Request: fold
Amino acid sequence: MVTALLRNKPSTWPILLLLGAVAGFAADLVTDVSFVGLGLTACDVFEILVVAILATRAGVTSSTDSIWRMAKLAAICLLVPTLSAAGGAGLLVLVYDVPFLPNWTTWYLGTACGLLTITPLLLSWTDQARRGGRGREVIVQMIVLAGLVGAVGYADFNLLPDLHISFPFLLLATFSGRLLGATTAAATLAAVAIWSTLLGHGHIAEMAPDDPVATVERLQLYIVVVLFSTLPVAAILEQRDRLMEKLRETTKAAQAAATAKSEFLAMMSHEIRTPMTSVLGMTDLLMDADLPAKERGYIGRIRTSGLHLLALINDVLDFSRAEAGKLDLERIDFSLPEVLEHVRSLLAPQAADRGLELRFERDAHSPPMLMGDPTRLSQVLINLVGNAIKFTQRGSVTVSVSRLPKEGERERFRFEVRDTGIGISREKQAVLFSAFSQADSSTTRQYGGSGLGLAICKKLVEAKGGQIGVESVEGVGSCFWFEVPLALSAKTPSQAKPWSSLAPGPPRRVLLVEDVETNQLLITDMLRSHGHDVTLAVNGLEAVALATRERFDVVLMDVQMPVMDGVEATRQIRRLPAPAGEVPVLALTANVMAAERERYLAAGMNGTLTKPIDWSQLFEALARYGGSSDSSASQATASGPGADPALLAADAAAALGATPADIDSPIDPAVFNRLRRLQGGSGDLTVKLAELFVRDTGKRLTELRDAVHLADAPAVARMAHAIKGSAANLGAQVMVRICAGIETSAEAADLETTPARLNELQREFTRACDALAFSLAAP
Reply:
């Protein structure tokens, strides 16, 4: 009855109590004690109501998986019967003039045992959450366990009364079934004990065969011992299981967050690095062109800004890898003087611009050749020296290297970067190596920087097994130092392979698989300028067809492409018979996550080149992987659909990222004029580009309108992105802004304002077409 109240709303309690009272009174009428039965029924109803109210207040209405909730329920089941037993015993004293204490004891033990046995049992069996939706499986398991305990209990009471072998099996049911097992097994054992005692079997019946009251009391105590030896243990096990489940959920959520973070970094890396390939590559090509000094200055600033953005991207990715413990460290032979010269060559112009002296000092005992990771060592030095130059107004920056006393089998080297800059207060030094921290927030605005550089340096040095620190006096200068173990190399400087050089190598026949026209132009021109033959494919399907028909020394394979991506294309190439199926394939990707690189290698690629492309790495890879080929001397030229030079030149101009003179103009004159200057000798490129823009954009606008009508948000985002790229090529900045808004809303699955924006885009497209016609007609 208590369980029925706890499992239902309080508003139904009066009806349930009335039904219970009627049933109890009817049972008493069978024994012909109508008046006494009415009083006893009132005591029972009072007891049930009080237990239900207190259990509700204690929070044990639906689950007793907590040891504290179990303790509260046990306390309620033990305390409330003291009142109801007193009422019942008092009524018997008044009517039959019987002793109070024996009747109270018998009533109390019977009621308490019933509450402790039946209430947890029914609460457990009626708790759907505890069964975990397994229903029949749980029922069968509990019946088997209870049957085992009942059988052993029967043997305990009837065959082997002195061994008490039922308790180990009772604990087995408790550990196997938790609360369900404990309550079911305890109730079964209690039933077996009552039945056996009534038949006069077992140690309880033998203790006082002529005293039924004493026998009942001992039986009740036995049941209490059974309950208190199982229910607390079951509650503790249930609580542990719930805590473990919460821990698993928390771990899963943390893993999901880490995965989401990795995917976000991979996506952002791809989205930012891909255009950076064009920006930096085109500036490299333009710097070699015959340009006036003013324009060369503009190009230089573009390149500097691009490198700064790329450095920031690399910092974020390096910090993420370091946090995840996934920093990859090389162990190769390298020349220490070459590393120092590399740092000097990069930072000497900055020091000269600020009027600073940049000095490098190397201990005479420092060996010229070491073994380790020169790239990471250079990264730390560039960061520390760059900071020193940035925060020094006058004076000098000195880099020194010294060899420390040997510790065991390892050689240790100390690198110091001293400056005469602004210095750092003692209280600020403690946070210098924390992420996104600088000595003062004002320095971020005055000197720039993300606050990640020193944090990355610390993680890189510690990954090498070293330590890093700083000594500084405010207003005097600073000395940043780090100590790392480096092994001595057996090679001489002449034997070492340069770790950073631009070595184009022998001519190769290259299959370039790339769908972005700007990258097509950039990579093709750079490779051809160094004597390589280039054949172009714009998707994986074309690449497989070309690899089947022709021989190539190496394949440069973009990863994300329409029709067929680079991973699937590589798999299909590997299925071709030799030698076509053995051609080296290098991935071109802006995704720098380790998991993605492993996926590329598993597909059969030989290596990965990261966008923006490091030309020294590209030429080194061509020299390493590109073998001799009978067809390498062929005079192949760039081929395949999408290789129209007019379109490539147009995208190249768009990649320069010029700011429009008039943001409200349909076509930016500066971009359009730049396109005119990029014309080749095969016709008017701007005319071809304009015709292509009008034809393709009109078709894409129709497809965009259909996607909006079908509420296909992914298709809307995809088409808006495509139109945005075409508009940017011609400097249609207003169209670019409208498309960007449509794309952002579609990615958020919000198409409410898209129809109005689509009408605005259609009107702006008409204006752009008119402006193009006018510009093309002008001399």
About this structure: Residues 188 and 519 are 78 Å apart (CA to CA). The longest helix spans residues 212-287. Residues 440-449, 628-664, 678-683 have pLDDT under 50 and may be disordered.
